[in-house]
Amino acid sequence: MEMGVKMTKITCVKYTSAHTSSLLFGLLMALFIIGNLLTTANAVDKSGTSEDDAYAALVWKYMEKNKFVGQDRMRSHPFVGNRRHGSIQESIATEAIIDGHKGRLIVKQNYGGKGKLTPKDVYSAGGNTHLEAITIMFRREKGYDPDHNDWFWAEYKPDSSIIVYDGERLVGRANLCTSCHAALGGNDREILNGNNR
Q1: Which residue has the higher pLDDT, 99 or 181?
Q2: Looking at residue 14, what DSSP letter applies?
Q3: Which residues in 41-60 are b (16+ Cβ under 10 Å) and which e?
Q4: Phi, psi at residue 99, to the nearest 5°?
Q5: I need a labelling partner for 134 at 20 to 30 A (CA). Which of 5, 23, 32, 186 fits?
Q6: In the chain, helix, strand, coil percent, each to 5?
């Protein structure tokens, strides 16, 4: 019986500096993408939780009781705004006690509609005519969200349900809110009457 040895041809690839650069670039891009996915996942986990919904319900209950929302709510002078919050807006700021914590509460009524809308249209129509959303900022206890001055954010439909925009529930530490207010709202994150302090 004859024993045979089978030979396999092995091909070696010679890597050039161009190959190494491409490989390194690909590896860095993969790490960048994975890092962004993890950061996005963590940001999503921070906002829109059931705890956020429960807290938003407490804020809404306070606003109903104190006539900040509803057909017979307090009114302020409507002013010309811009998108994200509506072509016409009303803002009221006060101190509120929510779940035993006293903090600054800013309530913004956001109006819009087809065609040109004026402050006079909004004020004379009364009630919820042209009302698209109610947005709030409530300064929570120290340590709630130190990167954004401990503000709790929510955007409600007039029926008190939370608005979802591009897949994000706008409640809690909502990224859409914090990113705009961090850029335009100054150190206190407030933007009132179109004033970007």
Answers
A1: 99
A2: P
A3: eeeeeebbeeebeebbeebb
A4: 50, 40
A5: 186
A6: 35, 25, 40
Identify any residues that bridge with 109 across adjacent strands, giving them in sequence order.
90, 134
pTM of this structure: 0.71
Give the torsion sign (CA, 5, 6, 7, 10): negative
DSSP state of 185: S
Encoded amino acid at 183, one letter: A
| 38-90 per-position pLDDT tens digit | 444 444 446 789 999 999 999 999 999 999 998 889 888 888 877 677 788 89
* Residue 167 · residue 160 · CB < 8 Å: no
Q: What is the DSSP annotation of 106-172? A: EEEEEE--SS---HHHHHHH-TTTTEEEEEEEEE-STTSSGGGTTEEEEEE-TTSPBPEETTEE-EE
CA nearest 153: which of 93, 42, 162?
Answer: 162
With CA atoms as reference, report the closest residue to 59 among 5, 135, 123: 135
Contacts of 51 (CB under 8 A, 6+ apart): 172
Alpha carbons 72 and 190: distance in angstroms, whole number? 26
